[in-house]
Amino acid sequence: MGKVTGFLEYERLEEGYEPAPVRLKNYKEFVIGLNVEQAKQQGARCMDCGTPFCNSGCPVNNVIPDFNDLVYRGRTEDWKNAILVLHSTNNFPEFTGRICPAPCEAACTLNVNDDAVGIKSIEHAIIDRAWAEGWVAPQLPKVKTGRTVAVVGSGPAGLAAAQQLARAGHSVTVFEKNDRVGGLLRYGIPDFKMEKSHIDRRVEQMQAEGVEFRTGVLIGAMPEGSRVTNWAKETISADDLKAQFDAVVLTGGAEQSRDLPVPGRELAGVHFAMEFLPQQNKINAGDKLKGQLRADGKHVIVIGGGDTGSDCVGTSNRHGAKSVTQFELLPQPPEVEDRPLTWPYWPIKLRTSSSHEEGCEREFAIATKEFLGEKGKLTGVKTVRLQWQGGKMIEVEGSEQILKADLALLAMGFTAPVATVLDAFGVDKDVRGNGKASTERRWMST
Ligand SMILES: Cc1cc2nc3c(=O)[nH]c(=O)nc-3n(C[C@H](O)[C@H](O)[C@H](O)COP(=O)(O)OP(=O)(O)OC[C@H]3O[C@@H](n4cnc5c(N)ncnc54)[C@H](O)[C@@H]3O)c2cc1C
Ligand code: SF4
User: DSSP labels for 185-206?
Assistant: First the structure.
């Protein structure tokens, strides 16, 4: 285990940020990771609990106490083993070490009455050092199976599936309808949270492992007039794909954005977040776009209080918005969670992102009643305050307000995968429109 008395001796150390006025000038990453010595001390804080709650709190079940211990030991050999341990459960720690919300830390036993071990920052330090030292190399299969697999969608799920299948000896082709690989990591999450060179480096590794990537190819069909990002130049039907490959893995994500069908929704200036964010990512990648959706000099209202909303805030501020306001339907949560009640689960508490710190008004318990406009263009939003009683949302009489708005971004989550793609493969859907899969059948669709 780390250091027996480490958790008593050392405080948690957060990763640093470039100051807001500096980072707002560009779209580059601004988190300053831990150095080797700092990571060692943070690893020393791990208590190697008999039941490591962090390990089951992590969605990919990272073997956290083991890599914490190795980083604490600190020899080069230990760091090399730490990346082996980390890669044993996680194909892309450079993604999770940057953007994972770290439910492991909520589940850390130290979090009961102290500050959790900085697991995510240790993970970040391990993988960045591993790449810098050249310890991440292609892993070629010893035997080829002669089987072919098509992976539909190149987000993190598709990439991880493709990498594992290729390493198991199958011939894998990843199909992506957009022009670059990476799913929402590429066209959603802003560069300032995760630069796209991390994806490119993995794609190179996977190509060396035998994975073929075909971008600009839509598999199945998209609904008429869909606003889901689709830059495909070619379409392959589900039947043709099934005929060409021994197996198909569907990893198309949940791209259907939740809409807000209130009066005025059709006005120019009301957009899904996923119409706004990918455009900036394309510009950052060096593409030229005509008529980019921009926030410069505008009053921006972001509707939705989650991560996507926060990314709209950060991007709008980088554009030079006049004001940015973010709405959340739910009331403002407490700054500190009720740990005895919530631990080891993900707690509801006020989360202030780096984008919020860069400048943003946050409004809680507020709903949008109407988008207002002149000559077809958005000029404002009509809102109403909410009271929550017994889980029900009640509008407060007489609390209507009108706020100026030139750009409204809908960031209210995603409802389901695009239905026509699932339909093309004849996949049964559950009541929420997700692919129906059963834990008893190892998550296979029906
Ligand atoms: C703005 C934003 C910010 C986020 N921030 C965070 C964060 O900070 N931390 C975090 O943990 N998560 C974050 N997320 C969520 C995270 O990005 C997703 O959970 C994750 O990308 C889902 O991975 P996926 O592989 O399932 O799907 P996706 O990333 O959605 O990838 C699916 C891919 O499949 C392609 N595709 C779909 N259908 C077809 C088809 N028929 N033919 C060909 N290609 C197809 C799509 O074009 C897409 O590229 C964020 C999401 C958004 C939108
Ligand atoms: S940061 Fe995320 S991926 Fe990494 S250990 Fe924690 S939960 Fe798992």
Answer: GTTTS-TTTS-THHHHHHHHHH
Cα-only R_g, the chain: 23
The amino acid present at 172, given as its one-letter code, is V
Distances (CA, A) of 240 to 53, 220, 244: 45, 9, 6
Going by CA atoms, what residue is nearest to atom 8 of ligand 2?
A: 58
In 245-306, which residue ranges form alpha helices assigned H by DSSP? Answer: 273-284
178 CA: nearest ligand 1 atom: 47
- DSSP state letters, 59-87: TT---HHHHHHHHHH--HHHHHHHHHHHH
pTM for this model (two decimals):
0.96
Which residue CA neighbors atom 7 of ligand 2 most closely? 58
271: nearest Cα among 416, 132, 396, 408 = 408
Residues contacting ligand 2 via CB (< 6 Å)? 58, 60, 62, 64, 90, 96, 100, 102-104, 119-120, 123
User: What is the atom index within ligand 2 of the atom nearest the CA of 96?
Assistant: 3
Give CA–CA dist 236/66, Å, rounded.
45
pLDDT at 391: 87
As a dihedral over the C-alpha atoms of residue 274, residue 275, residue 280, residue 282, rounded to 10 degrees, the angle is: 90
State pLDDT tens for residues 265-305. Answer: 999 999 999 999 999 999 999 999 999 999 999 999 999 99
Q: Which helix (H) or strand (E) holds 400?
A: none
Q: Which residue type, as a one-letter code, is found at position 311?
A: D
- In total, the chain counts a number of residues equal to 446
The closest residue, in CA terms, to atom 3 on ligand 2 is 96
The span from the CA of 372 to the CA of 436, in Å, is: 40
Q: Quote the CA–CA distance of 324 and 147 in Å, as a whole number.
A: 52
**Residue 31: what residue type?**
V
Mean pLDDT, range 377-394, rounded to an integer: 95
The CA–CA distances, whole Å, from 166 to 139, 157, 176, 177, 430 equal: 9, 14, 17, 21, 30
